[in-house]
Amino acid sequence: MLYRSGYSYKDPGQEHILALRLIHTTFLSLLGKAIVSSHEEDLPEGGANAKETKSKSAHVRVQWDPRWTIRLEKLPYRSIQSGVPGALVDELVKGTVKIEDVTERARELKLVLR
Q1: Residue 60: other Cβ atoms inside 10 A
Q2: pTM of the prediction?
């Protein structure tokens, strides 16, 4: 997450890094609405499957990403990355018990790594 956002420096749309604490049942509910995302699903040239995939706005998109140490050394396991669509944001918000802005900690870590 930190690497993908450039430690909050990547672009103006990613200048804050927030840590969300969710109710466990909310997390499980959202995960239960997940579909696995792949590059091929996002780029098909028409067809019913392509239209169906893009129109399912009530699905959380998940993908397995390589896992890295803070020094960008590859780890032998992967982590899950999820994207919650607008149709499910109310559920996410209602199940959020804590929001913490961790932007400054991320920026401090980036300086230490330099």
Answers
A1: 20
A2: 0.70
